[in-house]
Amino acid sequence: MRLQGKVAVVTGAASGIGLAVAQRLADEGAQVVIGDRNVAGVEAAAMSIGQAATAMALDVADESSARAIIDRAVSLHGGLDIVCNIAGVLDFGRFEDVDRGRWDRVIAVNLTGVYHMCHAAMPHLIERRGNIVNMASAAGLVGVPYNSAYSASKHGVVGLTRALALEFSKEGVRINAVCPGGVKTPMVQQTPPDNIDWQMVMRSASWLDGGEMAEPADIADAVAFLASSEARRITGATFTVDGGQTAG
Ligand SMILES: NC(=O)c1ccc[n+]([C@@H]2O[C@H](COP(=O)([O-])OP(=O)(O)OC[C@H]3O[C@@H](n4cnc5c(N)ncnc54)[C@H](O)[C@@H]3O)[C@@H](O)[C@H]2O)c1
Fold first, then answer.
1. What is the pLDDT of residue 55?
2. Is 124 a residue whose pLDDT tops 80?
3. Is 117 near ligand 1, meaning CB less than 6 Å away?
4. Which CATH number goes with the domain that contains 68?
5. Is residue 242 within 6 Å of ligand 1 at its C-beta?
6. In this structure, are residues 8 and 33 in contact, taking their beta carbons and an 8 Å threshold?
7. Domain assignment present for 246
8. Which helix (H) or strand (E) element contains residue 192?
9. Is 247 inside any structural domain?
10. Which of 134, 156, 165, 172 could form a disulfide with 235 if both were Cys (CB 3.0 to 4.6 A apart)?
11. Using N-to-C axis directions, what is the helix angle for 100-107 and 148-167, rounded to 10°?
12. HSE-up of 4 (CA within 13 Å, CB side)?
């Protein structure tokens, strides 16, 4: 119960890592306000978590929607301690096929969405010396072939995390990023396009246990730790949970 009495906002909570994080923060005693553009999914998530959870429709790419979930958390619970920016989209493809629409969509959700959430939340986090955990990726630390927009967006999340950690250190607001390797979620079950060198993608990822991917709960463990006071000396970190993928 490391998060007893804390108020958290979690994005992307209808599925995968976001769902596991929302459940984990609630298990640790937090009130969680959870958002996703999959409205039925996030409502089902809140039902399964129970009284500690409130669901909201959310599109992180839309600034007013991002502000609305932060405002809702503050008006419901009187303040805000933790923001977990988990919502994201993956887009594999050859670079020549990544047209401006595809590029803009990935950057709008994965990078500008994190900006929207951080910007709306920061005044409230300053009041309570709160913290932010951003979901970056191993692809935010090393390039992944045929994943140009996604890799660029996640490198952007790492840069934003580091810059904010320094800028808000005086206010006592911590900002960290978690960088998972492969995690068993619906995101990685998408069929990749057949015109990419999939072997090359797989060579860029060397996971523990002969390629076994992590479970969403493994990532939620790291998020809960970083969000808790056990991590009070940790800010600006890129916390890898990638089975060693980026170690070499
Ligand atoms: N699964 C992996 O292998 C892996 C690895 C590294 C990083 N990540 C990152 O973890 C995060 C969660 O991914 P996941 O694997 O759980 O995928 P997922 O597809 O299961 O979940 C992503 C969730 O984000 C939501 N979402 C997408 N766009 C949104 C928007 N504009 N506004 C609000 N919600 C939106 C989706 O509806 C979905 O519920 C992502 O940021 C992803 O990039 C995943």
1. 98
2. yes
3. no
4. 3.40.50.720
5. no
6. yes
7. no
8. none
9. no
10. 165
11. 30
12. 2
Q: Distance (Å, rounded) from C-alpha 190 to C-alpha 126? A: 39
Please identify, by atom number, the ligand 1 atom nearest to the C-alpha of residue 187: 19
Q: Which runs of consecutive H residues, i.e. helices, occur in 145-248? A: 148-167, 198-203, 208-211, 216-227
- Counting the structural domains of the chain, the total is 1
In this model, does residue 182 exceed pLDDT 80?
yes
pTM: 0.97
Q: How far apart are CA 112 and CA 117, in angstroms?
A: 9
The amino acid sitting at 38 is N
Q: Whose CA is nearest to atom 34 of ligand 1?
A: 36
- How far apart are alpha carbons 154 and 151 in whole angstroms? 5
| Residue from 9, 11, 15 to probe ligand 1 pocket by mutation (most atoms less than 8 Å from CB) | 15
157 lines ligand 1 (CB under 6 A): no
Pocket of ligand 1 contains residue 58 by CB under 6 Å: yes
pLDDT for 192 equals 84
Residue 192 CB neighbour total at 10 angstroms = 14
Percent of residues, the chain, with pLDDT higher than 70: 98
> Is there an atom of ligand 1 within 6 Å of 140 CB?
no
What per-residue confidence (pLDDT) applies to 3? 98
The single-letter DSSP state of residue 139 is G
Looking at the annotation, which residues are catalytic? 150
Give the residue whose CA is nearest to atom 37 of ligand 1: 38
- DSSP bridge pairs for 36: 57
Contact 110, 135 (CB under 8 A): no
